[in-house]
Amino acid sequence: MMSDQQLSQKYLAYHGLFLPKCGYEDNIKDFKTFKVQEDDVFVITYPKSGTVWMQEIIPLLLNGGDFTPVQTIPNWERVPWLEATPALFVDKMISPRAMVSHMPYHLMPSSFFSSKAKIIYITRDPRDVLVSSFHFHRMANFLDDPGTFEEFAAKFLAGKVFYGKWADHVKSWRNPDIGDRILYIKYEEMIQDLRGVMECILCFLGKQLSEDALDRVYEHCQFKNMKHNKMSNYSLVPENFMDSSKSPFFRKGIAGDWKNHFSPELEAKFIAAINEEMKGYGIRFYWDE
Ligand code: A3P
């Protein structure tokens, strides 16, 4: 946890987390009192775990494979960031609404806890999360410069990055109170078998899609295609906000890029730290498989 004195100019403090001021400063005040509806769908992730990918998939599965929204509405309006979007905008969305959030479980809006809203939670190998986040910090000007990879890894393990520690986020969303309202998905499963994952989501949401429609959605959501969708690749935002010349948002889209970034020493330290944080949670890890 970071004290207010340690916060850089780019962040604001929020219940022990720090969040980028940009986009949040005006909207976070509405977050706690946001009115959740029974048929809302929340995509919850720790940053850099595949959020934008799911912002593409979910509307298509909910609307029977109609490509109009993903071709005409930017992802941040199509499946808005709950904590960084005016409540008035989200209140006007047509049901069933899909939203994304990076918030830990205990900080969700009060009405969320008593609702039947469904949650899709994506985890990703934290080593790849770190790598993706490092490159994201290089291009996103609303975040601090990451420094060297080793420096950034130390900040990541200490939770001195936006939304805090990876392990705290993952643990918070394993709360048994959530019951069967949550579907856990791994980014790596999406890489290996996206069609299978989409079928699983359809079943969880009680929706159906023809084989043909599912094939089209599958194709559309491939990395090579999504990276050219200007409604999803952030090419619509000004360069002083996100600078793709430093690192594109759709960077590599693979599992295992950590191998190109970690020294053996850093890997050992990283695994030991995460294992320690996750002790007693019975979660099998990427490095245990
Ligand atoms: P990399 O930086 O490793 O390439 P988020 O949306 O949570 O910020 O996560 C971003 C990560 O998801 C980036 O990872 C991005 O490339 C990856 N991603 C987005 N769409 C993808 C897709 N269709 N297939 C595979 N990876 C995807």
From TrEMBL:
Record carries keyword Transferase: yes
Enzyme kind, highest EC tier: transferase
Every Sulfotransferase domain range: 39-282
Alphabetized UniProt keyword annotations: Catecholamine metabolism, Cytoplasm, Transferase
A single MF term (Gene Ontology): sulfotransferase activity
Intracellular or extracellular location(s): Cytoplasm
InterPro entries tied to this protein: P-loop_NTPase, Sulfotransferase_dom
PANTHER family named in the record: SULFOTRANSFERASE SULT (PTHR11783)
Name the UniProt record assigns to this protein: Sulfotransferase
Lineage of producing organism: Eukaryota, Metazoa, Chordata, Craniata, Vertebrata
